[in-house]
Amino acid sequence: MSSDAFLFALFLVAVVNTSRYISTLRTLLAVMRECDPLLYQQVDGRGFFSSQGNVSKQIRLFHYIRSEQYKKHHDPVFMAKCIKVRKLFVLASTFVIAFFISIFAVAFLGY
């Protein structure tokens, strides 16, 4: 198997998982708007994916999910979406990091 085919396959897997993560994050924001409007405003739900989005508020959602504060929430659908977002973030991040490490290995180490 050539290194180009390996990099291309790894890139495709990383893109698919990243798009799954973003899609699930969008559905989480939609569920959040209905079940917890205060949290939705705190994480800048309306402007989350816009160019004028407030990064500090977006990081607040990251810390909310990372510290698993959603486990205290009353809505099981919201909790399930948070768990899925957390898992997909880890998966997408892992594949993106593996892709960049593979590029380094192919380009500089000659594998």
Automatic annotation (TrEMBL):
A GO CC annotation given for this chain = plasma membrane
Q: Which domain of life is it from?
A: Bacteria
Transcription is among the record's keywords? no
Grouped into one coarse class, the protein's main location is membrane
TM segments? Answer: 6-23, 88-109
What InterPro entries does the entry give?
Universal_stress_protein_B (IPR019598)
Q: What is the annotated localization of this protein?
A: Cell inner membrane
Q: Keywords in alphabetical order, please.
A: Cell inner membrane, Cell membrane, Membrane, Transmembrane, Transmembrane helix
The way it spans or sits in the membrane comes to: Multi-pass membrane protein
Q: Which family does it belong to?
A: Belongs to the universal stress protein B family.
UniProt-recorded name of the protein: Universal stress protein B
